[in-house]
Write a structure and sequence with these properties.
Distance between the termini: 38 Å
Structural class: mainly alpha
Oligomer: single chain
Mean pLDDT: 85
Strand content: under 5%
Order of helices and strands: HHHHHHHHH
Number of helices: 9
Number of domains: 1
Low-confidence stretches: 1-21
Helix content: 55-70%
Radius of gyration: 16 Å
Shape: globular
Length: 159
């Protein structure tokens, strides 16, 4: 299964209002991605995710363009070119998207609510030196700090 299959937009009845706080496409993409083994995910990362992943992540977390460029190590013009030419993202951006997916899922499981997970991931956190958890997903060492905080919250430990 390719990442391209992860970006199909679900059909939505015309009369049903869109709830912009839920962003079901992001969470559906995450669920499908994390249904793969680590070896399969590694292959997907190396082949590159669709640029739609960044669009859905931006919408789900309300990220600004500056943070998008920093998080995914790419300029907006490069992203637009990849979108226009239907080219996949590079392995660096794809791996960071995978990292965000894993941590967002861990937060959603802890809070038992995707909206609360999004709010937590986008709010400055004292235990993370007043950075937002999603900002720290730029690098693995930052993501490790975020996972440590989530684990401490779940198990009542010290950060």
């Amino acid at each position: 299964m390719s990442v391209q299959s992860l970006v199909r937009k679900p059909a939505r009845p015309a009369a049903q209002p869109v709830d912009k706080t839920e962003h079901p496409l992001f969470w559906n993409m995450v669920q499908e991605l994390l249904g793969h083994s680590e070896n399969q995910r590694l292959e997907l990362i190396l082949n590159g995710f669709s640029a739609t992943w960044i669009d859905e992540t931006k919408a789900a977390f309300g990220l600004n363009n500056r943070l998008i460029e920093a998080l995914f190590n790419t300029s907006l013009s490069t992203l637009e070119r990849r979108r226009k030419d239907d080219k996949p993202l590079g392995p660096v951006a794809s791996e960071r998207l995978d990292r965000i997916a894993v941590i967002a899922t861990q937060a959603a499981e802890l809070f038992e609510d995707q909206g609360k997970a999004v709010a937590w991931m986008t709010a400055p956190n004292q235990a993370l030196n007043n950075k937002t958890p999603i900002e720290l997903c730029e690098m693995e060492i930052g993501a490790k700090q975020v996972r440590r905080v989530l684990n401490a919250m779940e198990w009542g430990g010290v950060v």
